[in-house]
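Let us begin with a simple case.
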Amino acid sequence: MSEADQVREYRLTELAERAGITVRTLRFYRERKLIPPPRREGRIAWYNDHHLARLRTITALLERGHTLGGIAELMAAFESGRRDVGELLGLDGGLPAWSEETPVRLTPQALADYFDDEATAENLTVSLDIGYLAVDGDDIVHISRRLLDASRALVAQGIPLSAVLAAGREVREHVDAIAETFATLLISHVLTDADTRGEEIGETVERLRPLAKSAVDAELSMAMDRRLRAGLAERADRRAEDPGRPPPDQ
């Protein structure tokens, strides 16, 4: 193990000093179970770099206006989300990846900065459940830079993050059905040879990826036109029937 890979250990007073808090505060956090229990060696409690990272996260979240109760809930969700990041990203060393998405590694406080008061334990739990997020060490990994940025942009437009996540779960179900259609098409008519080598599959993926994207984008854009026209027409009809009714956002 290299020196960089080694986890340093600290006694209580040293950990508190490095974290910039008092020993009393550290004990209070430990009693509230905001940090994991230390390693015991006789009567001596040993803390490590992971405890230090957690304490710095707590301090950063407090500075951003989070309450200790809210932080405790976030930490509980954080702990429950630990899973294999390779599994989350589909990195099984098998078929060439169709996806071109770039995963994003974030500290918990950086994720809180993305969504401000929308970064609740409930939303974090839903994101972990959907598979948007996984916990790796002291960091959080989001599966896609584009999805992360799109979620933040939607929240900035006034859409609650809970609604964005609910929509994401629904979209995931529909997209899985679309992917099944394309995968069946390719396996049945293009990748017909059971002995097809990995590099040949990779070449096929590179060739067909833009075609599939174009087809889905075209269908989605036309469907959005239809749905928006129908939805706006329906709202106009309702207003015409009840002129005194205020608009939905009032």
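The second case is a distinct protein. As before, the sequence precedes its structure tokens.
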Amino acid sequence: MKKIVFLTGAGMSVESGFKTFRGSDGLWENYPVDQVATHEGWERDPTLVTNFYNMLRKKLFAAQPNEGHKLIKELEKDFEVTVVTQNVDNLHEKAGSKHVIHLHGELSKVCSSRDPYNHHYIQELTEENSQVTPGTKAGDGSLLRPYIVFFGESVPMMEPAAYEAQQADIFVIIGTSLNVYPAAGLVQYADVSCPIYLIDPEPVMGNSYRNVTHIQKGASEGMKELMGILEKQK
């Protein structure tokens, strides 16, 4: 069974009405990113940051996977599928994808602010219990913080994602530019013979890649086109 590795970014969730930080205006849901998505912002005002992610979580639980998410899941019938996502939403999981690697953390979880990746203190929040009261503490006595990789922090899941990219028979990028890290970095791990498909309505292709097919459409329409291409290759 051939292995497909997907790398998904902000453009994947746009049709679901869920915004992820895109970087063009330095704002995330109208908040300056350095205020709500950096370690310095957290240290300066943990209450503001906690309330910001409480608000995002409400939006997340209301959001539903779009057809693009569902078509990725459907490919599991014929391929071994791994999804590496830059998004902090759980829309791939909601669509039923079984193997998802989150590079930038998960909005539906909270963790220790002293030791964010200690699994003993990571908690999964539910829709009924998605709001964290500012000042709530983790099991180690530090403040509970969002389980998000803040800007400037290391990306611990990069190594497993790179390993998956090395194993790919087909590599698909949706809704993220080939000119920025980590997309550009991960593509480098794919074998030179591995076909790469880039689904994005914008002209976001890097110059230095061979073997790239750009499907210039949004996530759902682009996935429909890709399904047609893969069907012919069976």
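The mean pLDDT is 90. Residues 46-62 form the longest helix (17 residues).
Keep these points in mind for the review questions at the end of the chapter.
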